[in-house]
Amino acid sequence: MAIQLLKLLKISVNFVKINFFLLLICLLFLITRLYKIDSIPSSVYWDEASIGYNAYSVLTTGKDEWGETLPLHFRAFGEFKLPVYIYSVLVTESVFGLSTLAVRLPAVLYGLLSILGLYFVVFKLTNQKLLSLFSSFLFSITPWFYVFSRTGHEAVAGLAFFIWAIYLILYSQRNKWLIVGSTILFILSIYSYNSFRILTPFILGPILFYFLTKKQFVVVTISIILLIGSIIPIYKLYKLDSGLGRFQTVGDTKNIVNNYFKNFSYDFLIKTGDTNPRSQIPNIGQLYYVDVLFLVIGIIYILKNSKYWPILILITLAPIPAALTRENPHALRSILMSPILSVVSAMGIYFFSTLFKKGRAWILTGIILIYALSFENYFYKFGTEYNKLSSSAWQYEYKEIFEKQKEGCVSDKFAQPYIFALFYQKIDPNEFIKTRQLNPVSDWGFSTVKSFGNYTFEKICGKTN
Length: 465
Known about the structure:
- The protein is mainly α and about 475 residues long.
- The chain is built from 22 helices and four strands.
- The mean pLDDT is about 90.
């Protein structure tokens, strides 16, 4: 037994030595994401409240807020939320209860999986540990990913599964059965966030066709069967259940090309970023100013090395989901750009440093310091200014109301106030279903609650709608 323990200890020590810097990156990520996670942003917004309450409802009753047993698509406000993140929150709520922490913690964990996955993808692609570490480091501190990886955004779950699906693809030449595993991860990504329903066919389709040409009929057949099985509920939702309502409210394909290139604009990437305060600190770019230099160098480096051209393909694909919608540019719908651009910047840093035969270590140290100081400044602004600049965007007013008000009329002019009442008052789901009255469903399939229990919701309290 003693010898086995010594061997285990030796293995653990060697693992820490080999992966010391990767562990430091993960530690930095966790510390900066968990810092005041339940108070910055100042409150949950309506999607977070809906995710949290529906998870709570399933946890306590086995049904969502509409009374559906273990649904695959959650009707919620009528826009049909995807299941992966909600069921993930169900797990954290089993520990922390219905709370802001429970809603946001899965995003942190999925974000950590994304950081680790990116490291292994880049290492497999380049066989360069330093380049892989830089990629994960830049991704962990990029402004683009920061807010999303500490709030209840479904996209982070989709991104994690998507990155690990690509990792399995890279290893599938050694083991063909990894394609089946990759297919399963892609399916999880498309049941996490809608953008990956658009992106997955561009990646998985050619891969399955390639293996078909290699006469790998069994793995391709199994993968296709899994895909068809996953598509049937989606088809039912879109064709029979008005699931396109959400897309129709934001969709505008007349200017797709223009929308597409907005996601590459200097203003969006560097100067002002996403104008939605829930996506970014106002007037802060998605990337750092220093990224401009290394993105250019990185692209040159990739163009000189044809084996890295798939990275450019991913860059061209990443903004497509955002381009198909009305709000542009859109950091959340184009979230795949975040890790890819981190890799490009990392390649730029790596290539730039090789130009210096002497003093390369000092050059790299200086670059790391510049990025660290940039992130320190961003982190400080987030901690000291973000709530002041964004509290209304996070619907903080409803938190103030429903942490105190247990009955009466509340205006529904600007949001879905009922979901905040359910979330902050931890209303029994059975009581909600039993007493609620709904307003007529809109043309786009959205629904609002007119009243439940001792609450009523009107545009102007004291008057009828």
